[in-house]
Amino acid sequence: MLIKASKMHSIRERTDLYSLRLFLAVVDLGSIAEAGRRNFIAPTAVTKRVQELEEAFGVQLLVRGSKGVSATAAGQALARHVRAMSNLDERMRSELNDYAAGVRGHVKLFANPSALVQHLADEIQHFIHTYPDIRVDLVEALSEQVVHAVRDGNADLGVFAAPVPLPAEIEVYPYRQDHLVAVVPQTHELASRHQVEFVELLQYPMIAVHGASSLAALLASASVSEIKPTFRVATNEVARWLVSKGLGITVLPEGLVAPYKNCLNVVGVPIKDAFATRHIMLCVRSVESLSASARTMFDALKQAGELTG
């Protein structure tokens, strides 16, 4: 369907970037009042700007209810485009600032807990020391949440543990590997073993960590029979603590166990199955579309992973 020139002119006049950003804030927050408060504008003014957008495009963008507002299908489509425009604007400003005052800007990084504790925290510290004018906004999330954040444009970079379902819209690169171990008390009969097969662990009370994690999915797919944990916990810290109290055993990456060997009296026994070597991956929507600061961090992390093999 062709849109008349007069209609296009009306849309351009009534869809300034500020109004579009206000609309995106309403969608993300689910509240016109909160969007107004965070942008220092009266809720009535926010409502007026959203109504002007709806009139300009000739379609309803929001559904208003007693608990707030939500985007219609058209509103969700507009939000995706506005988010892309905001990212483009940010990349433009970041690159121009780079020319004016050296490398500066900020990077939004999502990462899963095991990658953060084992490798990533040290590399972020080194990166910030090397590039003090680049601010790193870090969010800890489960691996599947990491790839979704990158896909949706809420993160520039993501670090996650495979395997997880991968959206077609992202690019994935090798970063590091980690190795899974059986975490047992030092007095446990498996503690003196050099290696253990995963199937052997199923005869002992099992402590499962977060059923939605990539590790839980990996263990479920590797098991020849259904895993029936005695305890289900939300964090690695609680799992280690329960093991130290003799309440069961668990499976964790080696880097999350070794530092606690003496203080918690636990041991990590390497699992010999092939799946126990996990691949930690780095993901982006597109390397070519990264801002200068995000590309700098991407290159630094990728190089660090390559140097360690």
Automatic annotation (TrEMBL):
GO molecular function: DNA binding; DNA-binding transcription factor activity
Cited SUPFAM superfamilies: Periplasmic binding protein-like II, Winged helix' DNA-binding domain
Top-rank taxon: Bacteria
Keyword field: DNA-binding, Transcription, Transcription regulation
Entry's Gene Ontology cellular component terms: cytosol
Keyword DNA-binding found: yes
Record-linked Gene3D superfamilies: 3.40.190.290, Winged helix-like DNA-binding domain superfamily/Winged helix DNA-binding domain
Keyword Transmembrane (UniProt): no
Domain HTH lysR-type: 15-72
Protein family: Belongs to the LysR transcriptional regulatory family.
Stated name of the protein: LysR family transcriptional regulator
Organism of provenance: Paraburkholderia silviterrae
